[in-house]
């Protein structure tokens, strides 16, 4: 995972993502005058859209955080690993959205992230995250190629099926207009997902009560079907 040059065009690349819907889902779980920690905050788009008394974002990429700081003036941003958060304070709501948890490559990393989030939640605090579904890895990330032409940015994205179950290598090539020529750079990312029952079990073992599991941004869709692409989890810190 790199996010170097990519950080500066990331929001253009993600132009069609439903950030407003993510924010609407999250906002209802932030108490009045509450606090939010956005894990893997990227360019800070979620924190830009939600209302909270205190906003903090963490990310591994210093380049992404530089863009986030420019985008969101009323938030604090810190470079940290989600598996070992160390912020010396707790929050009412913690989020990890836009399939960021899928960048964790093994079960132990998921376990450590859940434990780290638990340690930073206030009493009865809420943890909200989403992941790609198993079905999406099997159908959409199965050696497929995607592309888009945004006039000043052109990209080609190869989703190559990984060697281990429910994993993918994202090989992306970007051409960015610079005056009269296009400059090329490449990004390579790896993602992995796990069955829903795995996430449920690890949440419960980390000390969470699962409030809801729903699909594809629809809180009323609580039954898994063959065509779901994104799974949402809402969990409360157990008393």
TrEMBL record:
Residue ranges occupied by any Methyltransferase domain in the UniProt entry: 36-125
Record InterPro entries: Methyltransf_25, Methyltransf_Superfamily, SAM-dependent_MTases_sf
Protein's name according to its UniProt entry: Methyltransferase domain-containing protein
Pfam families associated with the record: Methyltransf_25
Domain of life: Bacteria
SUPFAM superfamilies per the UniProt record, alphabetical: S-adenosyl-L-methionine-dependent methyltransferases
Native species: Macrococcus caseolyticus (strain JCSC5402) (Macrococcoides caseolyticum)
Gene Ontology molecular function terms on file: methyltransferase activity
UniProt cross-references to PANTHER family, sorted A to Z: METHYLTRANSFERASE, METHYLTRANSFERASE DOMAIN-CONTAINING PROTEIN
């Amino acid at each position: 995972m790199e996010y170097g040059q990519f950080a500066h065009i990331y929001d253009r690349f993600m132009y069609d993502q439903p950030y407003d819907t993510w924010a609407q889902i999250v906002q209802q779980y932030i108490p009045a005058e509450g606090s939010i920690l956005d894990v893997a905050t990227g360019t800070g788009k979620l924190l830009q859209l939600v209302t909270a008394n205190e906003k903090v974002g963490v990310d591994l990429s210093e380049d992404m955080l530089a863009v986030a700081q420019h985008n969101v003036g009323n938030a604090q941003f810190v470079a940290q690993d989600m598996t070992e958060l160390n912020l010396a304070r707790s929050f009412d709501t913690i989020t990890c959205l836009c399939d960021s948890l899928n960048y964790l490559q093994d079960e132990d990393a998921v376990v450590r992230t859940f434990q780290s989030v638990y340690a930073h939640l206030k009493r009865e605090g809420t943890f909200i995250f989403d992941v790609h579904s198993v079905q999406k890895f099997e159908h959409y990330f199965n050696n497929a190629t995607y592309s888009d032409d945004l006039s000043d940015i052109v990209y080609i994205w190869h989703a190559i099926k990984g060697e281990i179950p429910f994993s993918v290598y994202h090989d992306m090539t970007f051409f960015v207009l610079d005056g009269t020529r296009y400059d090329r750079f490449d990004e390579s990312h790896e993602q992995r997902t796990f069955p829903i029952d795995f996430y449920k079990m690890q949440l419960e073992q980390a000390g969470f009560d699962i409030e809801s599991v729903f699909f594809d941004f629809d809180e009323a869709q609580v039954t898994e079907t063959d065509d779901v692409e994104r799974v949402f989890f809402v969990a409360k810190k157990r008393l």
